[in-house]
């Protein structure tokens, strides 16, 4: 396992296993146990995923010492306030059955993010969280949060894949010591990404899958990547990316795939914010 050092000195694994949209409890526990047995040490869940309790059971069942694992969860917009964050964090900690969280993120830049961030700063100071960060924040939002609060986010988890490479945003985060972490590394399989000719040629050259090429690309960019699968063989395959290296020419070719397009809802469109707010009863 490779590690990166966050801006507070904490070591974070460079590849992780995510559990978004894996809601069946039996399947979730099985694949998280498989991921840990394979060698994953970063496990990423969230309050809104509805599977923190099952992830906690898998962590306990794995038999791996707690200090060897790096557990991430996230605060949902329904609790995006100072008091809401305090309560939601306590609930997540209880569901995960842990004494502390390694990384706690504001899941969306929606609601009272400043109030919530102050709560995270206090929990961090108390040692209940080893690092705090955000998800889906753009550069201006990162700057605003950082400049008007005590703690600069350690991580920003964003949609990042070959079709949406965020070169300028990555450069800004790097300049401020904020670790880039990706979600949606495989672009949800859209645009026939697994059969893309450029990626296929590289996969054939190295005897790897296109998924492994995409994860290796992120690793070489300095991006912490998350992958997800309910298939044990693919869980193992997605971890097997440390025995080959893409060339400079390979990286240049992959850069040509960037279209700056989201394959999900644009988290910064007013319509998306209104939609998400509507889920928690906030409407005009």
From TrEMBL:
Recorded family membership: Belongs to the aldo/keto reductase family.
Annotated keywords: NADP, Oxidoreductase
Matches recorded under SUPFAM superfamilies: NAD(P)-linked oxidoreductase (SSF51430)
UniProt keyword Electron transport, yes or no: no
Name the UniProt record assigns to this protein: Diketogulonate reductase-like aldo/keto reductase
Domain NADP-dependent oxidoreductase: 16-258
Keyword Oxidoreductase found: yes
Pfam families associated with the record: Aldo_ket_red (PF00248)
Matches recorded under CDD domains: AKR_AKR5F1
